AAA+ ATPase domain-containing protein (Bradyrhizobium oligotrophicum S58), 504 residues
Amino acid sequence: MTVAIEMGQTAAGSPAALDLEELLATRLLVQGNSGSGKSHLLRRLLEQSAPWVQQTIIDPEGDFVTLAERFGHLVIEAEDHTERALQVAGERARIHRVSTVLNLEGLDAENQMRRAAAFLNGLFEISRDHWYPMLVVVDEAQLFAPAVAGEVSDEARKASLSAMTNLMCRGRKRGLAGVIATQRLAKLAKNVAAEASNFLMGRTFLDIDMARAADLLGMERRQAEAFRDLERGQFMALGPALSRRPLGLRIGPTDTRPRNATPRLTPLPEASLEDARAVILAAPPPETPARPQRKPQPELLDQLMAAKSAALELRPEPPAPVVSEEELAERRARVERVLRAVLAEPDAGFRAVGVLYQEFVVRCRIEGLGTAVPDLNDFRRMLTRARAGLGGDDAADDAGWQDVSLRASLLPEDMQGVFMMIARAAKDGRPCPSDAAIARAYGSHSLRRAQRLLTYIEDQGLIVCQLDGAGRRIVTLVELAWATAPGDPNADDTTNESLVASSS
């Protein structure tokens, strides 16, 4: 069944229809400067599609909470809930098929990013049984998927960008159809914007944004000037759900109104200058006197610690000891021996990286390594190579392995070990790792997750999977032409253990 949503009228006066089923499969990007009518367009889309599909809106300004009165959306006040609570709320919203509005108004930029990421992750990380079609609208998407780092912490930015990337890149198979709106294409991360196949471009004035909009619509650069002449509510449309050629349209009216309406000019109140002076310059109310705080007396232990700190500051730092190449090699060998001991634990493949790192640090201190303990980022890289069956310096000068490492860096960090494990098996001509071995390297018990992981890596154009006549799996690395030997995907989890052992 095809559901056509009327978004308004074309320049010729005919109805402008949007194919909802096609939109669910191909996603939508809306761009326009402030005042161009983006929020009005999103409201029209939400109102027209509300009877047909479940919806959720990531609302940074609280503009869409009025949908609850007319269409029964559940408004979730993000500032009243923790990140964990919002992730669970996202999961439950999908399970029970309830349309929601995540109101982020009142939060600073960093907390908006953290809570939006948690909620989106809840929508995304749900079992296959609940992958119902869902329209996910993100207003002011440049706040949640910025092209460059801003004033927020790297942790918050990465979490939000990862959630937005999952929504636009991997959400389609889970039934999630991303609809993102932004004021500036130049401020939106390219890998997020590039996944949309439908575009509605409104009024914009900056040359860089006009040029990107023209490129996305397949228009010539000289035609980009037309975006400056668009009126409020006018958009250029292109995409399989809208039109196969650039089409001008005007968005129709909506039944609901935003809570934060556009300011309108109103007459000033009539008041004499003396009345205004009496009201504005009246004496302020008396301040409540603050209690003088009693200065705490420093304890004896505090005095001793302060004296010790002062003495340490005056003491010259000893010169850094010179470490020979032999000593460095011996330290690396001891670090790798500790890592192998950590991974030899029966449940090491299913424990969080942070937990493994804590145990790794403790064992390194027991070994007397002291300050030579790698930091968390170095440990992640070592763990990736170890799970792939590589030693610390294996294949360092091998051009093929350098290419493998480069290609692995295109994947999320938690997937790189799986890709390198498959590459190692292919280079050595070993059987393809089983689903159980892949799941273990990924840190999961789920065989389905291992299968989805292979599908995702194949979708990125890095590998090609095929089955032979006996149902055994063969994985070929693209361009390198390395191929694993046929392996039983249902075999026990022995491949990964043997690979890790071989690195010793």
Observations:
- The longest helix spans residues 325-343.
- Residues 325-502 form one domain.
- The CA atoms of residues 471 and 488 lie 7 Å apart.
- The mean pLDDT is 80.
